[in-house]
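Human: My hope is that you can spare some time for a protein that puzzles me. I am handing you a single protein, as its sequence and its fold in token form. Could you go through the record with me and say what the backbone is doing? Take your time, and here it is.
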Amino acid sequence: MPPTTGPLRVILAQPRGFCAGVERAIAIVKTALKKYGAPVYVRHEIVHNRFVVDELKGLGAVFVKELDEVPDGGHTIFSAHGVSDQVEDEAMRRALPYIDAACPLVTKIHLQGQKHADMGREVVLIGHAGHPEVEGTLGRIHGKTHLVGSVDDVAKLKTDTPGRLSFVTQTTLSIDDTRDIIEALKARFPTIQGPDLNDICYATQNRQVAVRALSCEKKVDLLLVIGGKNSSNSNRLREIGADRSIPSYLIDDADALDPAWLEGVNTVGVTAGASAPEVLVQGVLGRLSQLRTTHVEVLSGIEENMHFKLPKELL
């Protein structure tokens, strides 16, 4: 059994944490609060992270489930996951001053899907049923759409135009997440059209590549993923470690770290989902250093330099 009280090696994944779309969404809320004053109303969680949501609440943001909770004239922001046309139409009908904080990559998927529909093609959306981004995307494509989340779903798909199909994907799924489904679609519908691989969300792919590098040849004995339980990309990072038989835990913050997990552990891998701030990572590192003497290193990986501009309303 490896020592449980000796020095602990901690390897940080690179990249990890906030992506450009999340940074933009948070900046939109903070900038709107400075420009318009509190309260500013946000439909759904701006991003799937409790720490971020609580911080914005403290600044004066009010989070609502639906627009009927927003008073007339209330400045309103849609979350980074995107919304359906129905939600936007309701805001316009009520003359609510609103800003759409949808990640530009999500908006790109909306436009691609509608372009295919305008060409008379049925659109297949690869994604998780019930996810806010999926609901928003389905509500942005005016035409016949199909949602598939597995290879089995592809086998059950019914279409009247098998020769005129296109597909788009939820952005929080990586190339690896969708590969089997895309292959099944192409096998059943050889003429199906889809996006270039470069259109897959860079942040999702990069963070999964980093976790695979951490778990390669069991480089780590334990994997800690910092992120919200309702965060699709954070859950997938944990699953990657678990799939490689590495004990892997998704935690909100340092308080959720169980010291018992460190028994028999020499090396810990630490990463964070795309909606988790670096301050939470540092908090976990601090907690680990309280439990054991730690030596922290950063895994070599992709350096991201993507940035998205704020909406014109806030410039």
User: Anything to note?
Assistant: The chain has a mean pLDDT of 94. The CA atoms of residues 83 and 136 lie 4 Å apart.
